[in-house]
Amino acid sequence: MAAQTGTMMSSGSLCTSGRQQNVVQALFGRPVQGQASRSPFRSARDVVEKRASRGLKVQAVAIVEKAAASAPPKSQYELYTLTTWLLKEEMNGTLDGELATVLSSIATACKQIASLVTRAGISNLTGLAGAANIQGEDQKKLDVISNEVFCNALRASGRTGVIASEEEDLPVSVEETYSGNYVVVFDPLDGSSNIDAGISTGSIFGIYAPSEECSIGDMDNPEKMLENCILNVCQPGSSLLAAGYCLYSSSTVFVLTVGTGVYGFTYDSIVGEFVLSHPNMKVPESGKIYAFNEGNYCAWDQGLKDYINSLKDGSNFHGQPYSARYIGSLVGDFHRTLLYGGIYGYPGDSKNKTGKLRLLYECAPMSLIMEQAGGKGSTGVQRVLEVCPEAVHQRVPLFIGSPKEVDYLESFCK
């Protein structure tokens, strides 16, 4: 019996320890003895090989099941929040603490905007603000407020050197920064014309690498500082470090990429945190939904007209024509396309040759997200991420969605 309890035998043989002996005996039906220089796991493997060589059945499945059963159960109250995700990415070396701080500040701004959007109808936040932005578009009250919320959050982070917004005429140098100096571009409230009707809206943002050329040290020469700031902001989308959007709808969803896939977090208002709900999002290869404003059909190029007509012709797709779904909010239409597949498009026309979507803070960030999810973003003739902005508020046509759908569209445009 001493051999089964792990005591030293007079012959010099040594059995496994008592606890290990019990495990081995439970798995193999009898204790395993081995030399003192051998580990119990090596001895167990020897038994498996010996029994197999004799034609005896080894219950490997039972062993795996037993090991799995011994693992602690996952708690039903476990939450994988955006904060946790950022910490994990920092540990993996995907991003540093400075960038994580900027992303966390943006998420906080989105929480505040989500609250404002929800209460807009009862807080006198609907309607026009009485001014127009640099593009000549009438500003809604929430456009102005959301821009201020974003700017305040980024300044408070202390890691932002330059910010460029749809609602600002020119890029703004942030004096409050003390490290990081990231360049952040954003549309604080996309689709704001839908607010009064309670239709989904969203915020879009992109983050570029820090730059020393746009510095408050050049305040003695404001013209030089402004020129450097504009040059720093006008970078191609391929240089983005991170991009994301926040959808304000039946739920508030924060979607983010830092170049390692796309992740979606749904806001839990009780906990007050964004909780991971859509890990590693992937757009379907194709999808039979198109989102275009066909009110502009007559002003489109013939190639685009032919494309739209082909989608409506069921004979081209085994008798099943495409379905049209158009919200009129880039974030809302994009989010549906990301989940269900298909294509979203805002082309140029005879009135607006380059369309109406801005390259820097709408098209480029969304294209990065779509590409990270396995899709494509195109101007019809060029990859969006390869277009280098020549102006802060430059516009480009946008076709974005499932890779096969974008390829099919491009066949009509080239």
Automatic annotation (TrEMBL):
Coiled coil: none annotated. It comes from the Eukaryota. Residues 283-412 form the Fructose-1-6-bisphosphatase class 1 C-terminal domain. It catalyses: beta-D-fructose 1,6-bisphosphate + H2O = beta-D-fructose 6-phosphate + phosphate. NCBIfam families: PRK09293.1-1. HAMAP family: FBPase_class1 (MF_01855). This is fructose-bisphosphatase. It comes from Coccomyxa subellipsoidea (strain C-169) (Green microalga).
